Amino acid sequence: MISYMYNYFFRLLTTDLFNFSGCEGRLTYFLFLVNTFIFNAILPIVFDMVKGISIVNILFALFAIVWIIVSLIAHISLIVRRLRDINTSVFLFFLIIVPGINIILVLFLLFYPGERSI
User: Fold this and answer.
1) Directed axis angle between helix 101-111 and helix 54-85, to 10°?
2) Cα gap 72→21, rounded to integer Å
3) What percentage of the chain has pLDDT greater than the value 70?
4) What is 42-58 written as a DSSP string?
């Protein structure tokens, strides 16, 4: 299960990054949220470990900026595909920027069954 989770996660970040067409199921959305949560929890720990070395610190900061941009684009594309899967308007995506409502939207996308069974 772990290898499947990471294989799918890296496939999502490489081939499906700019794919805004099609549908995605709940399992895909859940795996993406878990992986980004784990990776974002590890980033500050590693950043704290390389704090004293200046060139490594700069490179790590650049990597963190690139990671944030890539994961944000992947999350946007996954939200749009998940909204298509549950047959709702993709314009509901804009609710993700409203504080409080964004948590409700993520939970809705996570638990509402769509056309795909999982």
Assistant:
1) 60
2) 17
3) 85
4) HHHHHHHHTSS-HHHHH
